[in-house]
Design a protein that fits this description.
alpha/beta, 5-amino-6-(5-phosphoribosylamino)uracil reductase activity, NADP, RibDG_C, Riboflavin deaminase, oxidoreductase
């Protein structure tokens, strides 16, 4: 049975100016993280959900793409009392920061994500921030509290970058605890970051050499479909210069296999 204790803190990244980045994904036996329609992937078991919650509880922040949020319209928070107590004993707040990245800003403020009692941040572009502010639902959401800006009502920080995202710079900002809108140091710098998908985001971070660990759950089903997303999307890497993994552990629970890898000598990798 998988332990309920928090995972041990990871070894500090060989890069001192960015968070230690861990990616975690569940996939079918044929390597798909969702179907071709990119529906919410609800095939992992309760054991895998518990595994995921422990990883969420062990981190300072989670990061996920807009497509992942659109599929679920919510995110996994820490709800197990023992895990919350362990966070408190480590001097951490009950919940990690939940960070969504969306260049377009096409997010729906009616999603349950925005009602969850969690700290939220947004990584977007100037155009994306403007789109988000212009399309809030209901429109009255913009004027309910005049002491807050529109972005502060839903996000504690908004990080502005250019398209395509400059991920090394974004990681430096997260690590330093600065807001790209004001350059004022925040109270919650990010030292450990958990990436929860999707495959396009993971590919971008791997391309820039920004992933240190990978947790991969293999689930007992087949999805198929040449357009169904995989754990690593993007254009793909060119052999032999591909990200290399070292297997740290492999455990079987029921019909699922839980794999833990470290990424060997994380460095930028050219794509096709």
């Amino acid at each position: 049975m998988v332990s309920a204790a928090l995972p041990q803190p990871p070894t500090v990244s060989n890069r001192s100016n960015r968070p230690h980045v861990t990616a975690i994904l569940a996939m079918s036996a044929d390597g798909k993280i969702a179907d071709a329609k990119q529906s919410a992937a609800r095939f992992p078991s309760a054991i895998d959900q518990s595994h995921l919650e422990r990883q969420v509880a062990s981190t300072d922040a989670t990061l996920f793409g807009a497509s992942t949020l659109r599929a679920y319209q919510t995110t996994l928070s820490v709800s197990t009392p023992d895990l919350i107590e362990q966070r408190r004993s480590q001097g951490k707040p009950d919940q990690p920061v939940q960070i969504v990245c969306s260049a377009s800003g096409k997010l729906d403020s009616r999603w349950r994500f925005f009602q969850q009692p969690i700290p939220r941040r947004l990584i977007t572009t100037l155009e994306g921030l403007q789109y988000w502010k212009d399309h809030l639902e209901p429109p009255s959401a913009q004027i309910q509290n005049k002491s807050q800006s529109v972005e502060q009502k839903f996000f504690e920080h908004v990080l502005i970058t250019e398209r395509p995202f400059d991920w090394p710079k974004v990681m430096q900002n997260l690590y330093a605890g600065t807001s790209a809108l004001s350059a004022i140091t925040s109270r919650r710098p990010i030292k450990q970051l958990l990436v929860m998908g999707g495959g396009e985001l993971v590919a971008s971070l791997l391309t820039d050499g920004l992933v240190d660990e990978l947790y991969l759950t293999v689930c007992p089903l087949l999805i198929g479909g040449k357009t169904a997303p995989t754990p690593v999307g993007g254009l793909g890497f060119t052999l032999p210069r591909t990200p290399q993994l070292k297997l740290e552990s492999a455990k079987t629970e029921g019909d699922e296999v839980f794999l833990h890898y470290t990424v060997s000598a994380a460095s930028p990798v050219p794509t096709v």
